[in-house]
Amino acid sequence: MALLSSFIAIPTSPYFGAHTPCRIPRQIWSAASSAQDNVLLQRSAEAADRSAGHTAPHPNFGCVIAASGEVVGEGFLYAQGTKCAELQAVEAAKELARGATAYLNMEPGDCYGDETPVSSLVQAGISRVVVGIRNPLGHLRGKAINALRNEGIQVEVVGEELPSKKMEMALKSCLVVNAPLLYRAAFRVPFSVLKYAMTLDVDGQCLPFCDSGKIAASSGDASWVSSKLSRGRVFELRGRSDAIVVGGNTVRRDDPRLTARNGGYHVPARVVMSKSLNLPEEANLWNTDNAYTIVATQRGARKDFQEKLAKKGVEVVEFDMLNPRDVMEYCYSRGYLSILWECGGELAAPAIASGVIHKVYAFIAPKIIGGRGAPSPVGELGMIQMSQALDLIDVSREVLDVKNAFLHGDLEEEIGPDILISGFLQPIPDMSPVIPSIDETAVLDPTVSPFESKIIFFYKTWDPFGAFSNFSPHFIWLPDETGDSFLWPTVEHYYQAQKFMGIDKPLAKDFIQQIKRARSPEEAARIGRKVQKERSELVHPDWEEMKVDVMHRGLRCKFSIHPHLNSLLRSTVGFILVEASAHDLFWGGGREGEGLNYMGRLLMHVRSEILQEAAADSML
Fold first, then answer.
1. Pairing between strand 243-247 and 393-400?
2. In this structure, is the dihedral angle defined by the CA atoms of residues 545, 548, 552 and 558, taken in order, positive or negative?
3. Helix, strand, or coil here: 269?
4. Which residues make Cβ contacts (< 8 Å) with residue 356, sequence separation at least 6?
5. DSSP assignments along 88-121, one per residue
6. In what residue span(s) does the CMP/dCMP-type deaminase domain sit (predicted)?
7. Which of 203, 248, 448, 502 is the least crowded, having the fewest Cβ atoms under 10 Å away?
8. Measured between alpha carbons, how far is 87 from 63 in angstroms, rounded to an integer?
9. What is the mean pLDDT of residues 500-522?
């Protein structure tokens, strides 16, 4: 940290007591403090990015604590429901946190009633907090900042108290690390990245949208256009995504697997878009043992083939008119943040034209294959003049060669050098997106058809009513396999472990321990679902009859031991509760209200039990 220690530290303002915000006057905010804040805030964004690929994409939070310009603690949110970045940083800093400055890439905000990010900083004695961007979600925006200021902590936000021009590099890092959340919040579709690899068949300069670059030979063969190092980068992109989109041509020609190959962490879903369902009977994507597959098609297409896919575990979703925007709106309804498009040019062109592609990654290989009929990365866009070309914003160029291979630990054959050009097609949205407030209870998911006038939808933990999810970061005390009371991190941990309770086999007990140790509810769910599918002999024989009661016990405990959750549930009297899951037709409400909504029904049942008990107590 020699670079940081060379900066001149500006003393923080004294503590004036609660409800008295303390701020450094703008005129004494020197170039030295500007450079120091820039570096440290950028480091918090880099810390936030460290969770990518470990679990389902989610808002990324990082915290760096510095005293006199030296980093004394840092942390990042591994996943929703795990220890927050602020608490990790405070625990690392220990007594050095008192009087120090905390750098947050984004204003904290998680599930309802979780005040840990704010209370951790307050109790540690942090005197100043620098925030990169406010939380873009309307029900969380400004909440943590106001709470910190009410505790007498000096809070400075880039673009408000801190001039954005002098903090440009740090601000850019904070925006990019949460670009998926920002795009989703502003445009109500997931953040979409178009990736392709092409040869150097160009006339003149190499441009990402040049018609001469080829993504395959004229025969359709595309193995392999890019180097092994480039393919490793693609696996990283997949690990950061909720889903990967391809078209029917890709399935027919390449028979891809579309797996992340990231060491057993988050596995994205695979989405195939095909109007006619003219797809092969057998394909790698129809194997759903390790990754989920969704086929999006036009209503009425090949009903017999749809049934065959369903029997293989593939989800088929019909659209009146299949197009990229409707498919992205459907992915939005599933709670997806980030989508990777690995399609051919015929699908890439309408996706770009419909405005759902936000960023491009073009891997350019030093190869020439020729061929008048060889496919290009982007099909017809209707542009006839160069002035109509789409310009990338914030363009980055990188040579993927042996030097970079050392950095990535890959010295095997097919190193490169490839050139990676990336950039945004649309600017990162501003910080004032239109998001439903906590009082708007009926339109959190526009794709669900409400059949009642008073409905509260819930799904992701960062939604206004996210605390109703069994993935929310609220522990419960219930017996484990030994019969003793155990602190389960979330209801999902408890629910998944119950599948293997009572099975007198060492492997079943081992899986219970794996679920107990799972660092996030997503990981617990992934373990439980995978074992249930692959090793059915380890699942309790009466599980299908038991699972509703098991979930009820978990929810009953959760809303009994957390008073603020109890109050939240009671406040929904008169409202129908619906889990806005478009794909889970048992626990969720389904895409068009066709789901059984057992999660919502159980919550309403628990609500009735709580109200009845309260009424009985009042009679005593």
1. unpaired
2. positive
3. strand
4. 189, 192, 324, 325, 328
5. HHHHHHGGGGTT-EEEEEE----STT--HHHHHH
6. 35-156
7. 203
8. 9
9. 95
In this structure, what DSSP letter does residue 162 have?
B
Task: Quote the mean pLDDT of the chain.
Answer: 83
**Strand extents, DSSP E, 207-265:** 243-247
Enumerate the β-bridge partners of residue 103.
Answer: 64, 130
The token duo for 530 is 């995978």
Residue 481 contacts residue 509 (beta carbons within 8 Å): yes
Q: Which of 10, 270, 22 is nearest to 151 (CA)?
A: 22
Say if residue 53's pLDDT is above 70: yes
Show the tokens assigned to 86: 């602020």
CATH of 187-380+390-424, one of 3.40.50.360, 3.40.430.10, 1.10.287.110, 3.40.20.10: 3.40.430.10
The domain made up of 455-619 has a fold known as Tetracycline Repressor; domain 2 (1.10.357)
| 3-state class (DSSP) for residue 180 | helix
Please state the domain extents for the chain: 2-177, 187-380+390-424, 455-619
Q: Full-prediction pTM beyond 0.85?
A: no
Whether the CB-CB separation of 217 and 369 falls below 8 Å is answered with yes
Q: Would you say residue 364 has pLDDT above 90?
A: no
Fold of 2-177: Cytidine Deaminase; domain 2 (3.40.140)
Residue-by-residue DSSP string for 340-393: EE---HHHHHHHHHTT---EEEEEE-S-----TTPPPSS------SGGGPPPPE
Q: How far apart are CA 230 and CA 135, in angstroms?
A: 34
Give residues with Cβ within 8 angstroms of 537, minimum separation 6. none
What pLDDT does 615 receive? 85
pLDDT tens sequence across 85-138: 999 999 999 999 999 999 999 999 867 777 889 999 999 999 999 999 999 988
**Residue 325 pLDDT > 50:** yes
**What is the chain's length?**
620
Angstrom distance (rounded) from CA 239 to CA 250: 20
- Report whether pLDDT(56) > 50: yes
DSSP alpha helix (H) spans, 240-336: 248-254, 303-311, 324-333
Place of tokens 């940083």: 89
Q: Which tokens belong to 465?
A: 């009513």
Q: Please write the tens of the pLDDT for every residue from 124-182.
A: 999 999 999 999 988 888 999 999 999 999 999 998 999 888 899 999 999 999 999 99
Tell me the catalytic residues.
86
